[in-house]
Amino acid sequence: MLEVRGVAKKFGGLRVLTDVSFEAESGQVTALIGPNGAGKSTLVNLVSGYLTPNAGSITLDGKDITGMAPAKVFGEGVARTFQVSGNVAELNVFECVAMSAYRTASSYRGANEIAEEELKRFDLWQYRSRALGDIPTAMVRIVDCARGMAARPKILLLDEVMAGLTPAEVDIVIEQVRACRDAGVAIVMIEHVLQAVNALADRVVVLNQGTIVATGSMAEVSQNDEVKEAYLGSAAVK
Ligand SMILES: Nc1ncnc2c1ncn2[C@@H]1O[C@H](COP(=O)(O)OP(=O)(O)OP(=O)(O)O)[C@@H](O)[C@H]1O
């Protein structure tokens, strides 16, 4: 499905990613974790076309998407959320979700049907007329998931969707991410909230200072000395 091979990214003289390789599979959650500044957002920006790598390749179902523009990458089936939920606060929930349905829908009616289906899947139907800027943060995160799924993506990149939520809200969003995974989508999730990583990740990829230091189950990577060192002083890996 998604294959990232030997990817490197520099900003001027600053090497942010070096020789990064990982895969993400359909119907699985791959969690990207690592300390602040490790390069996680840069990696997601490379996969979604917002940045171009200096070396390496990114393929989706065998098709090379390296360096494609974001809209083209989206067209290929890569949907993403953003840490700050864009400038769509004035749109209502229905409009937000319908917008991304146009990746596959060829008519207004078709897009609206997809939006209705996703809003119902995510229990958001009753909020459809509310402005995005007017609903609680946890609900915005669920709308983000619904927007992503309305694109009928092959891969959904979730960038810290749990940030700032209460543990009870995290549980609700975990259920929604499971629904995305169970629909057969490859989920790649940058996440600092361990409650979510533990509950969702089939595979964990640990980045530190721009390189992958461990890959495996959460139990496996938690035992890795490089991972422990990367997190030294934080409670992130116990
Ligand atoms: N556009 C840019 N220009 C220059 N440096 C950048 C740019 N974007 C990111 N960086 C630097 O690249 C490094 C990795 O940043 P990145 O945001 O990818 O890390 P991260 O792992 O996502 O961190 P966080 O968990 O804090 O979001 C940091 O040192 C950051 O300052």
Automatic annotation (TrEMBL):
Residue intervals of the ABC transporter domain: 2-234
Q: Name one Pfam family in it.
A: ABC_tran
Citing just one GO molecular function, the answer is: ATP binding
Q: What keywords is this UniProt entry annotated with?
A: ATP-binding, Nucleotide-binding, Transport
For whether the record's keyword set contains Transport, the answer is yes
Q: Which domain of life is it from?
A: Bacteria
Recorded hits in InterPro entries, A to Z, give: AAA+_ATPase, ABC_AA/LPS_Transport, ABC_transporter-like_ATP-bd, BCA_ABC_TP_C, P-loop_NTPase
* Single GO cellular component term: plasma membrane
Provide the coiled-coil residue spans: none
Identification of the protein by name: ABC-type branched-subunit amino acid transport system ATPase component
Q: What is the lineage of its organism?
A: Bacteria, Bacillati, Actinomycetota, Actinomycetes, Propionibacteriales
